[in-house]
């Protein structure tokens, strides 16, 4: 150990200090940081919106209204049903659907960080690498970005983490009950994203490969139980779609990309957490190929023919390979977004683990290979942390520009608020309009929010302030007179009215509140 490490970490405290990195409370602290980050990133403009987001919001609101799986433009068939079902269920508590999205995705993101940290802590020998991996996942741009949007990726990623934990537990017990439980988790993932079919294939393959001591009939029985439980919910949903629309998952476009382009897209996404965007595609492909050969060498090196244990690294590797292969097949057969980051975000934690597992194995073997390895090990740890953490901080610095973009969010808020207006959504829309300098439109949005709210005072105040900034003093008087009717903000309304130009207040005789009493 280099002398500077001895100064910073005396021998008697070094072991205790290092073990802090893989303790459960460290994972919890990172998870809470993640939750706070998502909530802070969506505080001003609400969660980010996209075409998929609008469909989720619409379906959840139709479910709350008892109208079934519908959107404003037809049946809900292009996506599985679990995400809007959960959000509609939480909406029964009295929260607006848009508020539910914020807190639900923030909770999913925090749980992902916590369980990834615990998963890494079980198999990596060096606690510092456990911490590095968890922080890398915490700062991973695609996952963080989707957690700040109305998208199902955070829920699907969480279920993927649970799948890896559950299927790996099966490799230890090889019981029917564990296979059935894994099937339940996998079935929920498939009901969240159609991409979850890849987890069904992955689980079946791991059951077949890891069951060495069982008779082949027992192996097939466990694989069959897993496959049936995992496939039945999605099969029922697809049958419903076919009976009502004549298609399993709605109309799909054709693939516009060539094979080489698709490979470049996937390699860019898989290597996004270790290489900057400026790295040429050919070099990315070379890195992916080298990593694949390195993992195969490690598995061959550490997998004795008499060894019966199925390692977590093997579970992670099979998950990455099967899910990436399924995505490659999907790109070849149908139209998908050319940015694969969102699709591969659910398995990026497994790719991070494999990279750290490789470093962990090298550091562990280095002192045995040569005396210099004792000096190289801490250097590799520091460089790995600086590289992965620094690159993550670089990409996350751009995510705020994407999420906190009122112009981008406003277009989809317009669509959603026109079909299903709510006080929360209209308030968020008003804040976005304020930041764009559309003060009159912001005042109108706040006014609509006040009419729908059970506690409209703050919305009337916001409408009055926006009208003042628009120099529409007649509108400001009307909004602030309405605000005076509600005690919590009456004093503030009086103060704002007193600051208006003389003679304006007398020009309005009978303000109409327009408030719908609860």
TrEMBL record:
Gene3D superfamilies per record: Tetratricopeptide repeat domain (1.25.40.10)
InterPro entries: LipidA_mod_glycosyltrf_83, TPR-like_helical_dom_sf, TPR_rpt
Entry's transmembrane regions: 24-43, 73-93, 100-120, 126-143, 155-171, 191-211, 223-243, 282-299, 311-331, 343-363, 375-396
Membrane topology: Multi-pass membrane protein
Principal location: membrane
Record localization: Cell membrane
Protein known as: Tetratricopeptide TPR_2 repeat protein
């Amino acid at each position: 150990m280099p002398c500077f490490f001895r100064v910073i970490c005396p021998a008697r405290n070094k072991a205790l200090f290092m073990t802090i990195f893989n303790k459960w409370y460290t994972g919890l602290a990172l998870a809470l940081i993640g939750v706070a980050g998502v909530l802070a990133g969506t505080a001003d403009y609400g969660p980010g919106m996209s075409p998929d987001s609008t469909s989720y919001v619409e379906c959840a609101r139709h479910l709350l209204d008892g109208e079934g799986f519908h959107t404003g433009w037809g049946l809900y068939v292009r996506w599985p049903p679990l995400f809007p079902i959960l959000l509609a269920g939480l909406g029964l508590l009295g929260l607006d659907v848009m508020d539910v999205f914020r807190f639900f995705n923030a909770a999913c993101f925090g749980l992902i960080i916590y369980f990834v940290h615990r998963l890494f802590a079980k198999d990596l020998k060096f606690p510092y690498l456990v911490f590095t991996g968890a922080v890398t996942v915490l700062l991973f741009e695609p996952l963080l970005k989707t957690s700040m949007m109305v998208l199902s990726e955070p829920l699907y990623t969480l279920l993927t983490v649970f799948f890896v934990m559950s299927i790996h537990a099966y490799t230890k017990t090889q019981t029917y009950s564990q296979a059935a439980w894994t099937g339940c988790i996998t079935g929920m993932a498939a009901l969240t994203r159609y991409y979850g079919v890849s987890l069904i294939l992955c689980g079946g393959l791991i059951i077949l490969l890891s069951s060495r001591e069982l008779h082949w009939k027992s192996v097939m029985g466990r694989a069959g139980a897993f496959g049936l439980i995992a496939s039945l919910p999605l099969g029922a949903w697809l049958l419903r779609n076919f009976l009502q629309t004549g298609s399993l998952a709605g109309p799909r476009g054709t693939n516009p990309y060539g094979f080489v382009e698709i490979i470049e897209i996937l390699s860019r996404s898989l290597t996004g957490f270790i290489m900057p965007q400026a790295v040429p595609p050919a070099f990315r492909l070379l890195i992916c190929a080298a990593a694949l050969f390195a993992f195969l060498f490690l598995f061959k090196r550490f997998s004795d023919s008499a060894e019966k244990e199925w390692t977590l690294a093997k579970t992670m590797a099979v998950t990455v390979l099967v899910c990436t292969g399924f995505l490659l097949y999907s790109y070849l057969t149908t139209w998908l977004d050319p940015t694969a980051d969102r699709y591969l975000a659910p398995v990026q934690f497994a790719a991070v683990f494999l990279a750290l597992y490789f470093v962990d194995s090298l550091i562990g073997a280095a002192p045995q290979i040569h005396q210099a390895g004792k000096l190289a090990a801490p250097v590799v740890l520091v460089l790995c942390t600086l590289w992965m953490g620094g690159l993550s901080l670089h990409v996350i610095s751009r995510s705020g520009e994407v999420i906190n973009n009122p112009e981008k969010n406003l277009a989809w808020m317009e669509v959603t608020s026109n079909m299903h207006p709510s006080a929360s959504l209209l308030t968020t829309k008003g804040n976005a309009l304020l930041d764009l300098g559309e003060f009159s439109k912001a005042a109108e949005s706040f006014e609509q929010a006040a009419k729908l709210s059970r506690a409209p005072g703050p919305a009337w105040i916001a409408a009055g302030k926006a009208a003042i900034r628009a120099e529409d003093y007649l509108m400001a008087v009307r909004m602030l007179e309405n605000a005076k009717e509600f005690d919590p903000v009456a004093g503030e309304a009086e103060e704002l009215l007193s600051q208006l130009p003389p003679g304006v207040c007398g020009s309005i005789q009978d303000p109409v509140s327009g408030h719908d009493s609860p």
